[in-house]
Amino acid sequence: MKEFMFLFRGGDEVWDTKSPEEQQEHMQHWQQWIGEIAEQGKFVSGERLRTQGKTVINKGTSIIDRPLTEGKELVGGYLRIKADSIEEATEMAKGCPGFRWDASGVEVREVWPEH
Amino acid sequence: MSDFLLIIRGGQELYAQNSPEEMQQHMEDWQDWMNTLAKEEKLLGGQPLMNEGKTLLDFGKKVIDRPLAEGKELVGGYLLIKAESLDSATEIAKNCPSITYNCSVEVREISPM
Amino acid sequence: MVAVLIKIFGTENIELAEDVVQDALLKALETWKYRGLPDNPSAWLYRTAKNRAIDVIRRNKHSRVIDFSDPQRQLLTSNYTLGATMDTYWQEDSIKDDFLAMMFACCHPNISPENQITFILKSLCGFSTKEVAKAFLTGEDTVSKRLYRTKEYFRKHKIKPQIPKPDQIVLRTNTVLSAIYLMFNEGYNSTHSNDLIRKDLIGQAMLLCRSLFSEERTALPQVYALMALMCFHAARVDSRLGSNGELILLDKQDRKLWDPSLIDSGKLYMNKASFGNQLSTYHLEAAIAYEHCSARQYENTNWKKILEYYDILLKLAFDPVVFLNRALVILELYGPLEALEAIDHIKNEKQLQGYYLYHASLGEINKRLQQLDKAIAHFENAIALTGSKQEKQLLEGKIQEMMKSIQSK
């Protein structure tokens, strides 16, 4: 099996508009989704990221006080999973609970195989 | 101490122009850097990503055959580290060997919830 | 609460679980001292413990202390799922299951009974190491060693707390019942402690048994039977000790001190134990105990019925101790000669040679046969074999009585 990384794109603007109950329910959806992946032995790791960040650019000579990409392209979190092919991984990504709330994307990338 | 994700972007084109020896050297630089971080017990994980990818858009209904962001913004790999603060994590990020290829390193704290 | 935390951290991390409980309690004391008791203290405590557990998970996320390879526990490693997963661990149903599951883990058939009980008291009954040591009159070192061995066993064999599968449940429940009964007996007739009766152990044993029948899967007839048996015994607890702490045997006990409500509960559980066609030793022992409880005077005891129960008990499984008790029933029914004849069948049983009640029984039979010298010798053997102060006192009293009657002749 290969390892893939899901990069969840899009910010937390929607999150902030929801009530605590809705947020809690949303996290239960995440738990169910990742739980199913874990039950198949395909979960590796994953985290949500804080919206704030810094970026080192220009060969390390300057630092900007924000993530490189923002808005719809902001990386909001990631998930590492195992799958046989990028097609299977993409299929799995369709279940991402993030799609319940907004249209922003999930980028599916294969991790460089270890040798 | 908190956990931080370093997102390494861009530099692929410049890197592709390297000779095999230079590529080998670059891999060794990475090895050294990661070893140093591991010895300081700051390294939690990290991997390079292949350039190809797919992206799900439009509530997951649409799939395109490429990463969402490309070129200078193509995510080439990540590193998960431990650091005292966003600033000290950013200091660590400055030493990323791929900086020579003009990649950018985005430093993001893992959100507690 | 410890059971839930052990499920979260793994059986190998019982200290981590205890620390969290300790922290939560301390925090509760500090907060409640200034702000007063919250509306729902136990919910407050659970929430605090849950938050502490989340901290512990975060702190140990990248260490090897906690084994995160289990699919459910894997979800604790990601902040996407940590909160919701933690919540499911703390749901009421899940807490109840965890308690039972932990009980089954503790009572693994390959763990010795004393280690089983030590671990149960520590992980489920909230006893400190010191309290467990006191209950068994051993050092804290010994208790720590027992706990360590059990933990090692859990670790090595990757034993997870879980309620056994249907085809295993009867067998495994029986092991749990033996541990519960052993704990109860330790409380009812403590062999190790200076206190002959330890109500805390009695109470804990009954609580554990109750948790078994409050779950459908483990509400087996023998579970109710053991509960009935413990009720009948517990009903008599207060009459077993005199005002000076001396032991009082059944024939001299003040039956007005027996607790009628416990006897009633016992009857209720007896009825519940009668479904199915399972007849366990607990059913028969409960029936015998009930006969004693229902006799208004010692003289009214229905020894014939009791003898019948003993006969069935022995048919279920031969046990020299049961046979010995049956001989004592014969003593009441048919007299010392018959009793001596009965006891003769088991005189070569090794297990009985070190058992003080065997020697005490022989003493009693010989006393009734007016073989006073023999009786005294047997009682002296019995004294040497019992660790209990009260038992010794009782037997010494009998010897002195006989000495007097020898001298007066």
TrEMBL record, chain A:
InterPro entries: Dimeric_a/b-barrel (IPR011008), YCII (IPR005545). Coiled coil: none annotated. Residues 21-113 form the YCII-related domain. It comes from the Bacteria. PANTHER family: BLL0086 PROTEIN (PTHR35174:SF1), BLL7171 PROTEIN-RELATED (PTHR35174). Belongs to the YciI family. This is Uncharacterized conserved protein.
From TrEMBL, chain B:
It comes from the Bacteria. This is Uncharacterized conserved protein. Gene3D superfamilies: Dimeric alpha+beta barrel (3.30.70.1060). Pfam families: YCII. SUPFAM superfamilies: Dimeric alpha+beta barrel. It comes from Aquimarina spongiae. Belongs to the YciI family. Residues 16-112 form the YCII-related domain.
TrEMBL record, chain C:
It comes from the Bacteria. GO terms for biological process: DNA-templated transcription initiation. Residues 14-61 form the RNA polymerase sigma-70 region domain. One of its GO terms (molecular function) is DNA-binding transcription factor activity. InterPro entries: DUF6596, RNA_pol_sigma-70_dom, RNA_pol_sigma70_r2, RNA_pol_sigma_r2, RNA_pol_sigma_r3/r4-like, TPR-like_helical_dom_sf. Residues 172-273 form the DUF6596 domain. This is RNA polymerase sigma-70 factor, ECF subfamily.
